[in-house]
What we know:
Layout: H1 5-15, H2 23-30, H3 34-46, H4 49-64
Amino acid sequence: MRYPAERKEAILKKMAPPMSMTIPELAEQEGITATTLYHWRKQARSAETWRDACMNAKADAVQQG
Length: 65
């Protein structure tokens, strides 16, 4: 199954601070296998998307705080 890029990005943001949800938690919440989520995280980290998501999440937390 293919997932829209927007959904993947939203889920990756949940893995990043400040939410820092675990993959098993997200798998249950989102109905996506943990294997898929681990793969997405690996892809994101190698593509620097992971760092961008973390930076954006921190900036959002500062603005909300």
